[in-house]
Amino acid sequence: MDKYNRERLAQLSAWVEQPLLFEMVLATLSRHDPMGLYSPANPHAGTEYATEVETILPHLPTVRSVAALRCILEEEFERWFRGCPIPPQGLALIAQEIWQELRNKTESESPKAEN
User: Fold this and answer.
1) Is 5 exposed, middle or buried (0-12, 13-18, 19+ CB in 10 A)?
2) pTM metric for this prediction
């Protein structure tokens, strides 16, 4: 990530508090680019969805299913992109990927049972 993008993220409280989680969600959204914001000509394209991630992250601790996560994504994208068509299948795939990453993170942080 270039200096501009790093400085931009440093201004967002969610990134400061949970940088790894923030960057995972941001990378997933950027990779799928559900709203078609990415442009190879834009050197700062890596943070196009940072504002949305800022509003998605506070919901993650209460999410109990991929369906609930998809609803959160749909609500936040509707709020940020009101009036623009939002591809539900794209958000479903994004929700699935983020959910899997959250599950992997939870499993890796769980204490192992001792024998």
Assistant:
1) middle
2) 0.78
